[in-house]
Specification:
Elements lengths: L1 H17 L4 E2 H7 L1 H17 L4 H29 L5 E4 L5 E4 L14 H16 L3 H13 L26 H10 L3 E5 L8 E13 L2 E8 L4 E6 L3 E7 L14 H8 L6 E8 L4 H6 L2 E6 L2 E8 L3 H6 L5 E5 L1 H15 L2
Antiparallel strand pairs: 1-3, 2-3, 4-5, 4-8, 5-6, 6-7, 9-11, 9-12, 10-11
Helix pairs in contact: 1-4, 3-4, 5-6
Length: 342
């Protein structure tokens, strides 16, 4: 079936590219063998169903065949457009609609990529391969080949001893990527670090970015009326589309990485002092600017203090005690009480 459809699409594309005038549905139906064969099968099947009403059997068979062809033709036309073929719809003076694909509209200009651009393309292609978008990635690569990408440039091939990898394991990645592309609001259940149960978020998605091995979504949180960043691994359940358009302007440059970094204390200009169990909290130890042994199985650490540090400290539970500043200690206690209260 896949081979038959591919052959049918190829024949339709050749017809549309090879004509100098728009071709009607009727002409395409009579010119492409797959359509002729499908029409014959549909007429036979419809006629068999209508044997009990002899006078209406022929009309019923013809109507069923026409409907089947129209559905098949519209699907094929949409598939070709999805593959990148520019198909024009032209209406003649007598009202008949015709279709053609002009060669000048479907000819890509020569494309040249330097080493850095080819490397970026290869990394993107690897992401799509892992994200169940292998077909789209392969199709894009074929279009670049047709436009002049040298055959010796293989975006899928690793160049060098170290091969960069961007993991795409979250089920939310693909629907969110498509929602960002289509500017389509979404809703999803999101579990915060300090929450016992996930809560529903209504978001206008802007961009996705991978930072330190994790994917993040930046967008406008409608419920909070402000920009927010969400870690995809904390999204539970299915991402649901929402029909209405964006209500907030999309920034010209969406700085996902900078926002996440500031929330994680990467750009902090203050310091916090905490107590940490001696055999726990190794990510905190990696960030510490100073470590002092207190004895009795506890250490004292100085760590950068930035927005979101309270949520991160809560993840370590009883292994962490905040000593100062007082506002950070209060924030951590509030979060712990919220978790305990369910």
């Amino acid at each position: 079936m896949a081979i038959a459809k591919a052959e049918r699409l190829m024949n339709l594309a050749l017809c549309l590219l090879g004509t100098r005038r728009p071709l009607s549905k009727r002409e395409l139906r009579e010119s492409i063998e797959a359509y002729v064969e499908a029409s014959g099968r549909d007429r036979g099947a419809a006629s068999g169903r209508d044997r009990s009403v002899a006078s209406g059997s022929e009309k019923g068979a013809t109507a069923a065949s026409d409907d089947s062809f129209n559905r098949m033709f519209e699907r094929d036309k949409d598939d070709l457009r999805e593959l990148g073929l520019v198909i024009e719809t032209v209406e003649s003076l007598d009202g008949e609609v015709g279709y053609l694909a002009r060669r000048d509209s479907n000819r890509l200009p020569p494309i040249t990529l330097d080493a850095e651009e080819a490397a970026a393309l290869g990394l993107a292609a690897k992401v799509w391969q892992q994200a169940r978008l292998a077909g789209a990635a392969s199709g894009a690569l074929q279009k670049l080949r047709a436009a002049g990408l040298p055959e010796d440039v293989d975006p899928y091939e690793a160049h060098g001893a170290l091969e960069p990898r961007i993991p795409v394991h979250e089920a939310a990645f693909e629907p969110l990527m498509l929602a960002c592309r289509d500017r389509r609001p979404v809703a999803f259940d999101y579990r915060k670090a300090n929450a016992a149960q996930p809560g529903t978020r209504h978001v206008e998605p802007w961009a996705l970015e991978c930072w330190r091995g994790h994917w993040y979504l930046a967008g406008f949180d409608r419920d909070r009326g402000a920009e927010r960043v969400f870690r995809l691994s904390r999204i539970t359940g299915r991402v649901r589309s929402r029909g209405s358009g964006f209500t907030a302007p999309v920034p010209d440059v969406v700085t996902v990485r900078e926002t996440v970094a500031s929330w994680a204390g990467e750009s902090a200009d203050r310091s916090a002092r905490i107590r940490l169990r001696a055999d726990a909290g190794y990510p905190l130890r990696a960030k510490a600017t100073a470590v002092r042994e207190l004895g009795d199985g506890w250490d004292e650490l100085d760590i950068p203090y930035g927005h979101g540090l309270d949520a991160w400290l809560v993840e370590f539970g009883p292994d962490v005690v905040v000593l100062e500043p007082a506002e950070l200690r209060a924030d951590v206690l509030d979060r712990l009480r919220a978790v305990a209260g369910g």
